[in-house]
Amino acid sequence: MQTEPWEDDLTELLRRHFGNRILEFASYRGQKFLIAQPEAVVPIIEFLKLEAQFDYLVDITAVDYPQRSERFDLVYILYSFARNERIRIKTRIPEGYKPESAVRVHPTANWLEREVYDMFGIEFANHPDLRRILLPEDWQGHPLRKDTDILAMDNEWVRRHLGIESGQ
């Protein structure tokens, strides 16, 4: 991925406030992002909401790199209606690390974090109701992990709950 440096008034403001807790400011195809230490993500999101008008949490997602020691990238997408601007906050976390929930800053993070938990198995510390949101409660595993055999999981669930062989 060929990135370009991202430098403007906002990056200066963030750099002054968060220092080396932000590891990189970059842009990819015009999409601005920063990479932060995991414990800095929620404070950065809160700062952007209160001080820079990034008042809408668009999405939270993850990317799985099973061969990497910091297995997951967490990606938070924020939008500012006032600025008509979107930025992404990225962080890398190892398997088992529990990033802080962003629900206290953006209540809509509730369902977004539940989806990340459901699909990737990432648990968020201090989340008010962390449970599956898309799959049945008794589903085993997390389908968007790259080492998961989704067909085997589906076949087992269909066999157990419907008493038939899956059509897959």
Task: Give structural notes.
- This protein has 168 residues and is of the alpha+beta class.
- It folds into 2 domains: 4-133, NADH:ubiquinone oxidoreductase Nqo5 subunit (Beta Polymerase, domain 2), CATH 3.30.460.80; 135-168, no CATH class.
- 28% of the residues lie in helices and 25% in strands.
- It contains 4 helices and 6 strands, in the order βαββαβββαα.
- The chain has helices at residues 9-18, 41-52, 109-120, 150-162, and strands at residues 4-5, 22-28, 31-36, 56-64, 72-80, 85-93.
- Strands 1-2-3-6-5-4 form a 6-stranded mixed β-sheet.
- β4 and β5 form a beta hairpin.
- The protein is elongated.
- The model has no long low-confidence stretch (mean pLDDT 94).
Write the layout of secondary structure elements.
Elements: E1 4-5, H1 9-18, E2 22-28, E3 31-36, H2 41-52, E4 56-64, E5 72-80, E6 85-93, H3 109-120, H4 150-162
Parallel strand pairs: 3-6
Antiparallel strand pairs: 1-2, 2-3, 4-5, 5-6
Q: Which structural class do the helices and strands define?
A: alpha+beta
Rg for CA atoms = 18 Å
Order of helices and strands: EHEEHEEEHH
Low-confidence stretches: none
Quick one: overall form? elongated
Overall mean confidence score, pLDDT: 94
What's the CATH architecture name of the largest domain?
A: 2-Layer Sandwich
> Biggest sheet: strands, sense, closure?
6 strands, mixed
Order of strands, main sheet, comes to 1-2-3-6-5-4
The fraction of residues in strands falls at 25-35%
Q: Output the CATH homologous superfamily of the largest domain.
A: NADH:ubiquinone oxidoreductase Nqo5 subunit
The number of E-state strands comes to 6
What distance lies between the first and last C-alpha atoms, to the nearest angstrom? 35 Å
- The CATH topology of the largest domain is what? Beta Polymerase, domain 2
- Tell me the helix content: 25-40%
